[in-house]
Fold this sequence. Notes:
Two copies of one chain form a homodimer.
Chain A: E1 6-10, H1 14-25, E2 29-34, H2 38-47, E3 64-67, H3 74-81, E4 87-90, E5 105-111, E6 128-132, H4 135-148, E7 152-154, H5 157-187, H6 196-206, H7 211-214, H8 218-221, H9 224-234, H10 239-256
Parallel strand pairs in A: 1-2, 1-3, 3-4, 4-5, 6-7
Antiparallel strand pairs in A: 5-6
Amino acid sequence: MEEIKSVAIIGVGRVAQHIATELYANGVIIAGIFARDKEEAKRLAAKVKSPVIDKLGKRIAADMILLAVSDDAIQEVAEELGNQKALVAHTSGAVPMSELPDTLRRAVFYPLQSFSIDKQIVWENVPFCIEAENDCDVNALGGLAERLSNRVFVLSSQQRKTLHLAAVFANNFGNLMFEFSEELLSKGQISHEILHPLILETANKVLMQKASESQTGPASRGDIETIKAHQELLGTDNIYRQVYDLLTGEIYKRNHGKEL
Amino acid sequence: MEEIKSVAIIGVGRVAQHIATELYANGVIIAGIFARDKEEAKRLAAKVKSPVIDKLGKRIAADMILLAVSDDAIQEVAEELGNQKALVAHTSGAVPMSELPDTLRRAVFYPLQSFSIDKQIVWENVPFCIEAENDCDVNALGGLAERLSNRVFVLSSQQRKTLHLAAVFANNFGNLMFEFSEELLSKGQISHEILHPLILETANKVLMQKASESQTGPASRGDIETIKAHQELLGTDNIYRQVYDLLTGEIYKRNHGKEL
């Protein structure tokens, strides 16, 4: 296959909607939409001038079938597809390509982005991680991804698993740190907006240098007095204190080569 | 005092240099620079057309004396100042105003920013937290801060302590999460640039909604299979796994109302 010109989409969740709309806007033919919820399928199909696929199991006339369903539904839905000539890709960061039945031409088309808010996505910045079983399919998939984004990466299932884990640290855990800071400010009756510039700066620095080179604060300086004052302020037996002690100990160790 | 027109600066570290330069650029007279390192003092003084203060203990002719020294030097240096008519402010987030001798007109002038890299600071976005002993000094200090920044906050020493702690969570610990993610990617031989858009998005979301509303990922979804796969990938007895378990448990509890 030289070029993917038409895509059928299974699913009507956030990822399905975002990708369907964006592919359509970039001139890709949406060859069909399938979902258990027929009303939702009709609504999305209307937006991207696509037919609705009534049920799975028949041959779908498309260059690619995109399984934009939840991780635990991928295997089941892929099996329901039956025999297909099209390339079949799922959109998950955590699921290996090998979970798709090996009777299919298997692939992965994973946009690394957090789709949690109802805002415009700047697609050209979204990294796409792709995988397929042969170079020809990788190239075709890469061509499709490049219609949406400037950042296309070919990753193995194992690498994608590592990436997904790294993303949990950066995104979910980073966000939890921001959440803790908002809660501490709220208890002190301080507007959380006061921290916004620092949060932006924290993220922006990572784009310019290694995170380890950006580290500042009492633990990296070895300022024991301030650490003690923070611990006293936090009290004991709460999640803030547990996290504070674990992460402060780690930063101290990294910067001073010994335990705090 | 109605307006602070001249400032003497004690210290030649990063904060001292940044603030001296920026005050000078905004038309404030730099009335003197003091540092133990005379060469450094001369160099900074030349940049801001200021005399060098040879030693402490004499009356300094300035509306304000700024102690931009490390936290543990503030008290000692303030005592060396002796009797002063000028407002005396330190620049620390962690040190209460009361650590300055009560013979002085005490104040705090704390820019909440991470000054770790040699890049231009967008001062108008830097939050300034100010504190003084009476309304008149607060107003004068506020006027000075507003020459540099659009974000001026009057905070008590107790509030500033809480803010400083919250900043450790957001900046130091947030940065450590980014550091962990870079290390995991490096082990998987994956370019860490692939995570940059997600890191920026994580920070940008906090500006638009509460961090708790932005949370995504396996722990918040309750996706036990993915959590198990991540734990297996991390192995045991390492800091990544310790942090993963603690933070995943907390996110799960917050989203599902029970222990993982």
